[in-house]
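TL;DR need structure tokens for one chain.
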Amino acid sequence: LDNYWQFGPRAVAGYGWDRGSELALSYQYSRLDYDSREQVDRFGGALANTSLALNLQVIESALTHYWDVKRRWQTVTRLGFELSRDNGSGFYDYDCFRLSQQLRYRDEAWEITARVQVNHFEYLTQKATTSDTALRRKTMLNVTLRAERKLAKHLKAHASYAWERSISNLDFDDYAVNALMGGVALTF
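>> reply
TL;DR here they are.
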């Protein structure tokens, strides 16, 4: 919706073992400076002649494991925590807990991936409604299935299905979505 600049460092430490499996821990700091978006007061009202910036910090662990010698079957388990703080009233401040599990099969012709992810957001200032004192919260559930088939040396076809469910105490943020996509990719 709004253009922004994003910058910041990321550090990763990991330990690898058998067939390329690894356990990694990462930390990332990002700053988002919006071009035209204004800060808001604690009720969400725009503050004239201000610029919004968000400071994000993410810590995540990832366990990647190959289950066979040919490295066709792989799982990736991620557990993370993200916090966002704005440069104004704190209206956009939240803490987010994340968990995802991915299973992938890959051979010479096929790559098939299934992924499940849960994100839980706890907002620190935003209220669920103007008449309620409860703070906004949201849980996002995502399921993604993707299949890719190599048709020729530089040609692939792919199809994917994604289901997303947002469970929130804010009416407009409580929804379910299904998306089906497909296409052909030519690389050269």
